[in-house]
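If you are new to this repository, start here. Below is one unmodified record pulled from the training split, so you can see the exact layout before writing a loader.
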Amino acid sequence: MLHGAASGDSFMKKVSILMYHQVGRFPPPAAHRASFCHIRRFKAQMAYLHRFRYKVIGLEKALRGLFGEEPMPEHSVVLTFDDGCENFRDYALPVLKKYRFPATLFLVSSLVGKRAEWLEGRAQAPPKLMDRETLLLLKGEDIVFGSHTRSHSSLTALNLLSMREEIVQSKADLEHLLGEEVKYFCYPNGEFDEQVVATVRDAGYEAALTCERASATPFDDRFALPRKAISYGDSLLGYFWKLHMKHRRKTRR
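And here is the target side for that same chain:
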């Protein structure tokens, strides 16, 4: 599906939506490396964006640039963080505040203040998720919140009723908890199909993000926008390569 008018400069418009999960101090993970970013590398990455004058913009501004009439600044970057782990507050947030970078956090509504139960059984204990008080404090820090379902379930494996509840109820839960509209959605594990996308659209979200690797362009479906995963081992050279060379979509489905 093509969403957004193909204006004369549409083919030039693109934005790197970066996908982070946990930020902190971790031993080298044996698996799921895209779920971890060591704080040392995160600091270097944010300093790199600042030093070389990348345009770190919010998701809303990126959508207006891709699908609206606004120009898209060259070398635009959007920062997104999945799951809402507590280490975001302790490690990522101070760095973002230093550079005044906006970010979007995707929360699992029924597990706010609990642990990331879907990570049970991996080498490390499931990380703690931010509680309501912490999330409310973040509202004044140029942070936008989105939904990551109610329980981080794989939506394509659920029946229609359960799938719809994960998508629709999570929006209602978070809006009640935060006292503000929740406009954006993120597919757990990057798993979605046409029925899931249609449900997200019908639920009243304005856009949704995947785990498919590419720059986002006006030719993407706004309910299946690609992102670029930042992995534990990414050096600054690898970071540069993802920002400037990794534009073609690589599907995980």
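Two things worth knowing about this chain: The helical segments are 39-51, 59-67, 87-99, 132-138, 160-178, 194-202, 236-244. Confidence is low (pLDDT under 50) at residues 1-10.
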